[in-house]
Amino acid sequence: MSLDRELGIAAELARRAGTLILRYFGTDVAVDTKAGNEPVTRADREASELIVTALRAGFPDDIIISEEAPDDPRRLDPAHRVWFIDPLDGTRDFIRGRHGFSVMIGLVIGGRPQLGVVYQPQGDRMYTAAPGRGALLVDERGERALHCSEIADLAQIRLVASRSHRTPEIDRVKAALGIEDEMNIGSVGLKLGLIALGERDLYVNPSSRSSAWDTCAPEALLAHAGGRITDLAGAPLRYDTSELKNLRGLLASNGRIHDEVVRRLAPLFFPPA
Prior knowledge:
Layout: H1 4-24, E1 31-34, E2 38-41, H2 42-58, E3 63-66, E4 82-89, H3 91-95, E5 102-109, E6 112-120, E7 125-130, E8 134-139, E9 142-145, E10 158-162, H4 169-177, E11 181-185, H5 188-196, E12 202-205, H6 212-224, E13 228-230, E14 250-253, H7 258-269
Parallel strand pairs: 3-4, 10-11, 10-12
Antiparallel strand pairs: 1-2, 4-5, 5-6, 6-7, 7-8, 8-9, 12-14, 13-14
């Protein structure tokens, strides 16, 4: 399966959306509150409109789902290809003048993420992944193929966690696994990008608030780099159900430590009755 055209268009749109977003970065852009008490800005909405409009023009038979647009029930038809877009992942970091935000565009085919683009406008860092191309990062150092770390010893795990949504449950996770090394950043895509890059090994999100557009592009990236993402129970994430939220949290890793982490964390999140 070649998705070269899709990847090229998605990367171009992510870069264009990133340029748009940066025009608002560090300004007094108005902040509204949407469902779930989540912040949203003009930058989120305009980036979404740019991407959605272009994808609809380029792929009129596909279903386009954006965080900043209504759901489309046609995405449940397995015959359809479905794009999931988070036009500004890490909005809280963006509002606070931090660099931990990204543009994310992913494509689901046959129920699984096959293509992913995660673009960090600050620093001009472009993560891409697609069949036959693997996972790549293009930044000031040029183009690099991405491969997850080989760390298998839980005591050596380098954790990446949320900056804005960090809860005391992360301290419980660290205690259960014996983790001392923790890094914090906003965007889910940037967290999984660091795991794909081999600079981090594990991401745990106990919250039920993340959605399909938060994980689609990063999952494609991580899978092509040799890693895994599941819910906290170790079950694959679903993109073909009516529920868009990941109600049982997220666990992303370099792959080698995944099953043991799931086993160790089970008593924390799924205690026996």
